[in-house]
Amino acid sequence: MSVTSNALLRHITIDACLRDTAHKYTLQDLIAACTRAVKENSKGKLKDNFTVSTRTVQLDIQMMRDKKKGYNAPIVVYDQKYYKYSDPGYSIGKADVKQTALTPLSEIAETIEHYSRMAGMESLEGAVDLIRECLENKVNGSFHKIRRQKPQKPSGGVFLDVIKDAVLHRRVLSLSYVDERSGLREMIFYPLYMTTYKDRWYCLGFADGREGIQIVQTDCVAGYSYAILPFPPNYRFNAEEYFSDIVGLSHPAEKKEDILIKAHGVLARFLLSNPIHQSQRLTDKSEDGSCKFRISLIPNDEFFRWMYENHPFVSIESPKYLSERANETIRNIVSDIQVQAVEEGKTKKTKEKEAGKKKMRKEQFEEDLFSSLF
What we know:
The chain is of the alpha+beta class. The chain has 10 helices and 11 strands.
């Protein structure tokens, strides 16, 4: 256990003793309580004669009383022998802790932030924000200046844990998978990597009979079994290399393009602080607020979907063929939505028509039933 952790443990132990109004605690009693606590919580083996020193506990009490560095604890001595809180309802857990007492937690946040910059560990950024929010709120008392909305749990389906385990232990899966285009299909799948995208879990790997990396949306898995097949040792996945040149998940077999996009309105301001891709660079900013950005990536389905979602506030300036392709994609998506709306409208009308016929048959049956009684 670190020195900082020992100090915090002793403070908590002393606090528990001073809140116990049923017993009287001398300095020696506090030393004995702290010694037991350190021994019980030590990861390493301590000597049998180990004891927390008198000087250490006296400094702990002094630090707990301190207004600036400690807890401003109202510790008093009565009968020139026993320690207690002058306020029976006081606890260091309720104290307005100063930033200096929270230094270890700040250091933890910095360490996690360092790891969050590594490929595949970006989700740790949320933990960093949460820790720093707690620190800010604690330092400023009960008045919260910052509130971080908790992210929604990504959808993963009932077999999420099974797939995670298969990725970690390189186990081959026989999956029943519901594909939006081809319906239910079976595949022998070699899972290599998992990630979230737009609040859903995805697994990337290889599949028998298919070339290249396959992407499986985990909540579309309808069933599984373990395939009695060896996991090829040459099956590897380099996440940093795979995701460096794309937006989203899909990695088409196309060359990387140098793309110039123009954004205006709210989107232009948003992109200045939230780049669509790590290669994004501002090339021009007009007086009307519109901006031009240059990005270097492989244009995939997710990129064109992003263009559609932000239409008409973004357009491709060059190359020309990508601009035409983006416009065609937008037209196709709009057309699909219109067709779907029409089909849903027809389905609704059909259901209403069937319901009307059923009601008429019921009314006719009741009419015939009652007429036969007279």
